[in-house]
Amino acid sequence: MPAVTADTLTLPRLSEAGLGDTERPVRSITTGPKGYEGEGFPVVRAFAGVSSADLDPFVHMDQMGEVDYAPGEPKGTDWHPHRGFETVTYMIDGRFQHQDSHGGGGLIEDGATQWMTAGSGILHIETPPEALVLSGGVFHGVQLWVNLPAKAKFATPKYQSIAGTQATLVSSADGGALVRIIAGSIGTNVGPGSTYTPITLAHATVEPGAQLSLPWDSSYNALVYVLSGRGTVGADARPIQQGQLAVLGRGDRITVTAEGTQDSNRPALEVLLLGGQPIREPVVSMGPFVMNTRAELFEAIQDYQSGRFGVIPDGAIMPHRAH
């Protein structure tokens, strides 16, 4: 980990903190419980125990893996519906195959991101390809759910494929951290993802003993999730480690520092940086549907059951199960 790397000395540098900049303090740190998703792949429920108001506009996030599968063990999901939000799948190691009922699809690997706007309703599948099921191997990624405002809940579904090489790469002021911007902006640096809801999503690798200080839109909320490693976060340098999420308070700058010594199998501090413009609308959800009212939720269930989300295409990919 991770799939996309670069020589930080050759990249554009993020600006250092200036007079008048305000570091965001830590409001809470929570530890995500472990569970299973789909056909049984292991996940960490990154947002468990955090209020929806602090997460807004995000709804849900799972860290998938990190796991080294033996042959025959890799698992994914079967075909299932979504409505009312966007699913973002970021693959750090390993590969996932995606297909949906509106013609989107492809292989997600090597730091790539699949951005699917479920909108008015869609069916899709995410499963490891047959070759990976047969061979086994490392599987590690993230799935994030981004809410849609009421005006976009019934938008036409769409699909974006963002290759790992398309992410905008920048480094910290001292070159000790690599930041991959997938969507939104950090300072003047803009990622390739197109979003209905204004957000920023980035993955940073902070080398042992290095510090990452970066500008952050003061109108956005700010979340820091540790994929692996140990360090500190926020103006008050609170300790944080793998599987923990920090919710930050108001300000216009985020600081993350890696401990000087990391585990040998996790040589750096790896963090996801997330933030967005809060939608501040009611959220009523049930499984794969995220709506504004209970009536809309029941409508989503009825529409799915009556086939209005589309159909599984002829010759569609299906879960690969070793026999």
Describe this structure in words.
Keywords: Iron, Metal-binding. With 323 residues, the protein is mainly beta. It has a single domain, classed as Jelly Rolls (Sandwich), CATH 2.60.120.10. Helix content is 7%, strand content 45%. The chain is built from three helices and 26 strands. The chain has a seven-stranded antiparallel β-sheet, with no helix packed on it. A seven-stranded antiparallel β-sheet has the order 2-3-4-11-6-9-12. It starts with 25 loop residues before the first strand and ends in an 18-residue tail after the last helix. The model has no long low-confidence stretch (mean pLDDT 92).
Strand-helix topology:
Layout: E1 26-31, E2 34-37, E3 41-45, H1 52-55, E4 58-69, E5 80-82, E6 85-93, E7 95-100, E8 105-109, E9 113-117, E10 122-127, H2 130-135, E11 137-147, E12 158-162, E13 168-171, E14 177-183, E15 185-186, E16 189-190, E17 199-206, E18 211-215, E19 222-228, E20 230-233, E21 238-241, E22 244-248, E23 253-258, E24 269-276, E25 284-286, E26 289-291, H3 294-305
Antiparallel strand pairs: 1-22, 2-3, 3-4, 4-11, 5-10, 6-9, 6-11, 7-8, 7-10, 9-12, 13-14, 14-17, 15-16, 17-24, 18-23, 19-22, 19-24, 20-21, 20-23, 25-26
CATH superfamily grouping = Jelly Rolls
Q: Report the sheet with the most strands, covering strand number, pairing sense and barrel closure.
A: 7 strands, antiparallel
In the predicted model, the low-confidence regions spanning at least 5 consecutive residues are: none
Give the CATH topology: Jelly Rolls
The secondary-structure element order is EEEHEEEEEEEHEEEEEEEEEEEEEEEEH
Tally of separate helices: 3
N-to-C span: 30 Å
**Total count of strands:** 26
Mean pLDDT: 92
Please state the overall shape, judged from the principal axes of the Cα atoms.
globular
The CATH architecture designation is Sandwich
**What is the percentage of strand-forming residues?**
35-45%
What structural category do the secondary elements indicate?
A: mainly beta
Total domain units = 1
Widest sheet: strand order?
1-22-19-24-17-14-13
Assign a percent range to the helix content.
under 10%
Please write the CATH class name. Mainly Beta
In angstroms, what is the radius of gyration?
Answer: 19 Å
